[in-house]
Amino acid sequence: MKRWLNNPVLTKEIKLRFRSVKSYIGMSAYLTVLGLLVLGYMAAYMSFEVNHAFQPTQSRDIFMMLCLFQLALLIFVTPGLTAGVISSERERQTLPILLTTDQSSATIIISKMIASLAFLLLFVILSLPLYAIVFLYGGISPSLVFMAFCLFVFTMIVIASIGVWASTIFRKTNVSIVTTYGIAFFITGGFAIITLMLTMFGDTYTVDGSNYPWPLLLASINIPIMLFFMFDPSALQALQEFAGWTISPWWFFVAFYVSLITLLLTIAIRKLRPRVKRKRTLAIEEPSPIITHIITNLARTNE
């Protein structure tokens, strides 16, 4: 563990991430957008009230909206910070120099990913004061806040692994970023649309009493739907009854994304260093002493 934290690649990446002026501008913009969205939602809600006042009973709705905004911003920001960690080194022609060091491929990939995740984690920590608005009115348990933040961190790891994989596979940073955004939007928005379509199909064409697990399986690997299930478990229970299963969908969620993260990082580590094909060379073996002795005697006899 100490070796991982003290490696020069991680130290260099963290210094570059946290000492840049662009980083502070990005964090300020992130908090500004998140704060304006929350305050705008509260202002819009109060404008429709008769007394133009915010009701404390709506604090749960504010918390849910804040979590959804936070999740959407993390899904939007993470590909931009992780999808160029290797391809940008390749474009600057510094990757061959990095590969000549004694750092292993796993150390380089994991260090760059940890540096990006540390920067993103700072975004989440800086947003904590905004959640104090919710606690002013109550109605939210600390365990729900903890579960929401765990889901944020897990989402960052999933999308960061996709970004690192794409950055290693594709040579151009633009292609890597577009690919990462496409996959991230598909597993968040695409799976939700497919889940809705399958649910409608099941309601219409399945026989009453028959099990239909596909909506539950797809909903279990969709991050926004699982966040929504944290606030309203009744929708999840309806899908479980429709599938005829009692197992928690969080097991599918964790198993699917842990397998995906492991697969993507393994491919990225194996593809980081180019493989050089070795040419077969014919080795000339020295004759044994017995054969040398026979050849020498034959030569003397001929003389």
From TrEMBL:
<keyword id="KW-1133">Transmembrane helix</keyword>
<keyword id="KW-0472">Membrane</keyword>
<dbReference type="Pfam" id="PF12679">
    <property type="entry name" value="ABC2_membrane_2"/>
</dbReference>
<protein>
    <submittedName>
        <fullName>ABC transporter permease</fullName>
    </submittedName>
</protein>
<feature type="transmembrane region" description="Helical">
    <location>
        <begin position="117"/>
        <end position="137"/>
    </location>
</feature>
<feature type="transmembrane region" description="Helical">
    <location>
        <begin position="21"/>
        <end position="42"/>
    </location>
</feature>
<feature type="transmembrane region" description="Helical">
    <location>
        <begin position="250"/>
        <end position="269"/>
    </location>
</feature>
<feature type="transmembrane region" description="Helical">
    <location>
        <begin position="178"/>
        <end position="200"/>
    </location>
</feature>
<feature type="transmembrane region" description="Helical">
    <location>
        <begin position="62"/>
        <end position="82"/>
    </location>
</feature>
<keyword id="KW-0812">Transmembrane</keyword>
<feature type="transmembrane region" description="Helical">
    <location>
        <begin position="144"/>
        <end position="166"/>
    </location>
</feature>
